[in-house]
Amino acid sequence: MIPFIVTALAAFAIYLILTAGSGTVGLWSPFELGAGAVVSLLTAAISRNYFCGSRDYRMANPLRWLYCAVYIFVPFFLEMARANLDVAYRVITGRIRPGIVRVSPDLATDFGVLLLANSITLTPGTLTVGIDEATNDLYVHMIHIGLGKEKKEIFESGDLFTFFPLADWIRRIAE
Amino acid sequence: MIADTIILVCIAIGLVFNTLGVIGILRFPDVYTRLHAETKTTTFGTIFLSLAVIVYAISRLLSDGDAQFLTLSVHTFVALIALAFTNATGAHAIARAAHRSGQVPSPAVIDRYSEGDA
Known about the structure:
The complex is a heterodimer of chains A (about 180) and B (about 120).
Chain A: H1 2-18, H2 30-51, H3 62-93, E1 99-104, H4 110-122, E2 126-132, E3 137-142, E4 155-156, H5 166-174
Parallel strand pairs in A: 1-4
Antiparallel strand pairs in A: 1-3, 2-3
Helix pairs in contact in A: 1-2, 3-5, 4-5
Chain B: H1 2-27, H2 31-64, H3 67-100, H4 112-115
Helix pairs in contact in B: 1-2, 2-3
């Protein structure tokens, strides 16, 4: 029952976001509200076992999503802007020193690893190539490794970023 | 008028970064470094192009009060999220596929992925 309710509520919320501005009940027309309810119940009946496959409901907490939004708009965006300027500089000058390093972020949940791997990939200059499923270590291709740093066996996740410890933020979101 | 200025600045930043991404594809030596320029820099540029659309929609919404501009801005924002997620996942999939099919990074100072058992 809980997977059904969680999936229905999530589907309904997404339907409301997509149809905002359609009418006068709040932002929605009565027809859209009714159609959204029917469609989200149908969606929940079909896909509850995919959406809640792990039976782990910690991400159903809205506070975690609020924290996730803050994470995306402040530390992650600033980090991304800095890295973009860095890569723009390397595109123009051609000064690169690429290589694949092993990073140990020490995250426990699948969602946390997904979020960190996507954050790393979306930040220019670092690209997640592979993952060691046993230890959750990431193999990251970096476009510029500082001189001598490649001797280090395992990188801390903090070595990849400049301003913020993104792995700690993700630990607070997902664990 | 402030909105017009913000829109112009956003479009200019977006076009500059997208152009740099294209130049990066031509200048970088191997598939991994090209992925850096091509997928990430263009995502950043496209984020700013989408921001220009959102600012335009919000400014029209405030001046005209027409609800279709609310829909426009929300849909652009959803497209932005979808773009960011699929771009990261796609870049990772291309890099992983390249490595598994034997494309070693070259030049490279280190390659822990080939040394490991993965």
